[in-house]
Design a protein that fits this description.
The chain has about 300 residues and is mainly alpha-helical. It contains 12 helices and no strands. The longest helix has about 50 residues, at about 220-270.
Amino acid sequence: MLAAALVLLYLAAVIVVFGVFRSSTGRLPSDRRRPVEGNPATGLSRVTGAIADALSSILARHGWSQPLAAALERAGVKVAPAEFLILVSSGTLIALLFGFLLGGIGVGLVFAIAGPVGAKMLLGMRESRRRRAFANQLDDTLQLLAGGLRAGHSLLRAIDAVSREAESPTDEEFARIVNETRLGRDLNDSLEQSAERMRSEDFSWVAQAIGIHREVGGDLAGVLDEVGHTIRERNQIRRQVAALSAEGKMSAYILLALPFVVIAILMITSPAYILKFVQSPLGFVMMGAAAVMLIVGGLWMKKIVSFKF
């Protein structure tokens, strides 16, 4: 059983390293390669490609491909949905086998559950970080737009300049706006969709200002300057609120983590004391009541330190 687990662990690691992250380019640039001599695909690459194609068809058949692709795009992960699922599945298999080797099937199942949950949490963290970066760069973005308009460029040309000069993720979002406009989509729709995708109320104001200017005309550079001034003041207030509420958030994290730390210490130092909670019905009742109070307290502290303005 141990030898079979080690073999499966090795195969899962090989799939992750050589299957999912297979390289599509060689050492030479594509324009210097001979077109008749393509890079030979290995057997593992062909198997992984076939699995990815099968997963893509399954996702498309059930309507799951588009939501997953949108989630990956919002998180800034440039991986196809099928390849992401292969990566998560391989990581889950490795975690399952590793937990099985450490403490048996129970620990293995706990490690396996942590794989998809960790992937979802990672996507959420990357998406939140990307949105915060976009919001922090919006002031400089509006200055670039206003400067381009004052230099005599058209609105679309100024947006294209921002897509080439701004930092990520602003450059990616504005490049998408330019590409969608070139394909025939209305500029206002592209701007509103970008604001909705980034969940940025400030950029939604910018999109509305641009839409009003396209209908009635006027000095768009001056309007963008005023909007940028308002956004700077909002960001200043937001940073002040974040600084003032940082102590409350840290206190909440410590209070929520304290019961688990105490339980872990007692399991190491005095396991017989902790086992009494699972040896009687009263212990289960006490653990359930503690879990309910912990959840209620966490929600209450989150409500206290969370502000919307």
